[in-house]
Automatic annotation (TrEMBL), chains A, B:
The gene is GST. GO terms for cellular component: cytoplasm. Keywords: Oxidoreductase, Transferase. This is Glutathione-s-transferase omega class 1. InterPro entries: Glutathione-S-Trfase_C-like, Glutathione-S-Trfase_C_sf, Glutathione_S-Trfase, Glutathione_S-Trfase_N, GST_omega, GST_Omega/HSP26, Thioredoxin-like_sf. The keyword Transferase applies. GO terms for molecular function: glutathione dehydrogenase (ascorbate) activity; glutathione transferase activity. One of its GO terms (biological process) is glutathione metabolic process.
Length: 246, 246
């Protein structure tokens, strides 16, 4: 809908087509928006993607996202064409509204336990971004924190005894943490010591990652580590090369 | 179950009684734990409360709450007696597991919109705590931020045209933001200028607050502004007087 180009300040507001199709306001390299793409793909829900320049935001963005963040999901079939924000809220909405391909477990306890793991993953996110963006001095401590965080998920996958957190196929927990695992692949391009997941310590996670890369929903929005690293390297120099792939 | 006293380092682990009743690990003045008390009360779910000293934490706390936070809700009827953490996850679990008194709207869109408002309330929380804990120099900016945050909820209540956010009775949104509205009453004891909600700018919210104070679930865990202020004044001097009410 924005043809992959990131709409910036001064861009005319994209007109709402009369097709009733969901509109996702996104940014190609945003891991939170990535979550919404994955859920939409996994559920085979058609959608228009509108990419947003997050440093020079279009004036009309706050009509859809009051805090100017992505993802925002506009619902053209609903009265007033409202938009939802916050990746986890968008994900759970989609899971409830489009139950044909369920992603969260039906059992309230199992669902709550998966949500707690998603929440606990946020400590890994903080450490990862320190390394992605940060100086190499900060890296050793942050790498330790990342590995400790991954330990929780390795242990969990091991105790579940299934290839995916969701069982025989990816569920909500898999998709909600995937954007950062995909980005972990950029560490071998960003760090001098070419960091990779320890294949013994993280044997289950490594197998899981290899399966996830071949999942249809993941493939639909996948970028390799080298591409993620290229965007991040520019960002380290304060260059936001949103349209790098267009 | 802890008799209102906050269990500290060295306290023996409370034994699990054979009654199948939920156990809530809480701290009497914690607004996040407050949310869990409200949901349990609103749904008439019996529970044991175990209060925790959060500065000198009991060694066994991490068995129930891996990050040592409250609330944590232990579920003795479930296999392995698991515990859930994170106030919003606990609240939504209870709403799904005990649907007799529903708190979230059934409609996925309305539910998502209420969750977004709960999320947006967190900017108010940050500003409130600046004032609760902070120097009077920080106060004017933070008070402006609080009022701007409250504007969103005033407008929302006005557009809903109902006494509560949940309609004719309080729903999840009402209970999730209430702990901080209850604590806003302490501002008249903490600030020299005796801050109160502007009765014209916030006419709907003032009427809502007056109704909420008389709600049974709220009454079951209510403390007045003076009591909250007393706890907070001590905390400003780095004294955590957890057992103030025991």
């Amino acid at each position: 809908m924005s043809g992959g180009k990131h709409l910036a300040k001064g861009s005319p507001k994209p007109t709402l087509p009369d097709d009733g199709v969901l509109r996702l306001f996104s940014m190609r390299f945003c891991p939170y928006a990535h979550r919404a793409h994955l859920v939409l793909n996994a559920k085979n829900i058609p959608y228009h993607a509108i990419f947003i320049n997050l440093t020079e935001k279009p004036e009309w963005l706050t009509e859809f996202s009051p805090l100017g963040k992505v993802p925002a999901l506009q619902l053209p079939k609903e009265e007033g064409n409202p938009a939802l924000i916050e990746s986890l809220i968008v994900a759970e909405y989609l899971d409830e509204k489009y139950p044909e391909v369920p992603l969260f477990p039906k059992d309230p306890l199992k669902k709550a336990q998966d949500k707690i793991l998603i929440e606990r993953f946020s400590s890994v996110v903080g450490a990862l971004y320190k390394v992605f963006l940060g100086s190499t001095e900060a890296a050793p401590d942050a790498l330790t924190e990342i590995s400790k965080g991954f330990d929780i998920f390795e242990k969990e996958l091991s105790s579940r005894g299934t290839p995916y957190f969701g069982g025989d196929k990816p569920g909500m927990l898999d998709y909600m943490i995937w954007p950062w695992f995909e980005r972990t692949e950029m560490l071998k391009y960003l760090l001098p010591e070419k960091f990779e997941l320890d294949k013994e310590r993280f044997s289950k996670l490594v197998a899981w990652r290899d399966l996830m890369i071949n999942d249809q929903a993941v493939k639909g929005h996948y970028l390799n580590g080298e591409t993620h690293a290229k965007f991040m390297k520019a960002r380290r120099d304060n260059v936001h090369d949103f349209d790098m792939l267009v």
